[in-house]
Amino acid sequence: MTGPQENYADIRESVRALCDRFPGEYWRELDRDRAYPTAFVKALTEAGYLAALIPEEFGGSGLPVSAAAAIMEEIHAAGGNGAACHAQMYTMGTILRHGSPAQKERYLPKIATGELRLQAFGVTEPTSGTDTLSLRTVARRGGDEYVINGQKIWTSRAEHSDLMLLLARTTPKEEVKKRTDGLSVFLVDMRKALEAGTLTIKPIRTVMNHATTEVFFDDLRVPAENLIGEEGKGFRYILSGMNTERILIASECIGDAKWFIRKAADYALVFSRERTFSKLRFKSPPTRFQSPRKASPDRVLGKLTVEPTVPAEPICASPFTNPVIIGLVRGLRRDRILSERTMLRNSKPNEMSLMTTYIPEEGSKIK
Ligand SMILES: Cc1cc2nc3c(=O)[nH]c(=O)nc-3n(C[C@H](O)[C@H](O)[C@H](O)COP(=O)(O)OP(=O)(O)OC[C@H]3O[C@@H](n4cnc5c(N)ncnc54)[C@H](O)[C@@H]3O)c2cc1C
Fold first, then answer.
1. How confident is the model over 253-269, as a mean pLDDT?
2. Interacting residues of 236 by C-beta distance below 8 A, sequence separation 6+
3. CATH T-level assignment (fold) for domain 9-255
């Protein structure tokens, strides 16, 4: 039984098990090479997760959006990147809701198995992002095909997709009754278009490894049977698909937040343990300070030294090389050490015995 309150514990557990096969090193290596997570996407496809929203009659699991959201959240909570393939889950929604029976029969079962990748979504253009109604890519009908010219930008995963859902203008803006009319949605066979040389894909280098691109259409020919729904009504069709996209991306963000919070908590724990059994040492032999009366706080403070400590088994290698985290940790350690210095200064002799749990040794000075 699934409902809005369903937590999908079973699904989450299986997703976590799958993600365990793709640890941090896998993602870091991809980031280094700016490569696509092909093996991860294949594993998700084979496990059926990317077909979660496709109805069972077309070979999917027929799950609600909340289940798909749980899948994406769990991938990100496990340190993975579902954004590399989330569009394979929801882009087909436009065909499912607005496509003809023939289009559904033809495409959905193959999208469900992963034989066809429909994860390119061509809406944004260099001169129209949020203002979708001003897009300039034009599709002109000629006989039983449309000829498309124009450009899209930030078309993610275009190099890893067989099909693209494309929004183009079929009626000039000045000629439509309603502002939202005149745009149409097409299913473009990118493999054929690349072969014909009517589609060019140019990768865009971004801060994060997101496989995003610019695409150019030069007399791209699309059969009229690839028009989705009614001509001129495409804006509504695209918006209805975007709702699912936004929900899934929000779930990924929640998963990211869980991952980062867990990592931060793990580090806090490691460092507090480290601190308890710290290598903070005093210069003089330990025996000398076992009697707190012999140690004047000022003398001790003058010789207090700290060794930079790194956990023997780092939970994850990258934060140790991350200058922001290193700075943060250093700052926290310094604050704590300074407050302990104050404690030492203000401490009475019998309280000093607590401080002697630190093992004296020469090391680097607190910076
Ligand atoms: C990682 C990533 C992947 C993407 N993948 C795809 C993809 O696969 N396919 C695709 O088509 N697009 C994709 N996009 C594009 C994305 O959908 C657009 O960036 C988005 O539509 C915004 O367009 P823009 O960048 O041109 O910003 P703009 O439209 O220039 O907006 C910039 C800012 O101004 C605000 N703004 C704009 N107009 C107004 C207004 N009238 N009043 C008040 N505020 C306003 C916006 O809210 C925004 O904060 C991707 C973007 C990113 C970052």
1. 94
2. 180
3. Butyryl-CoA Dehydrogenase, subunit A; domain 2 (2.40.110)
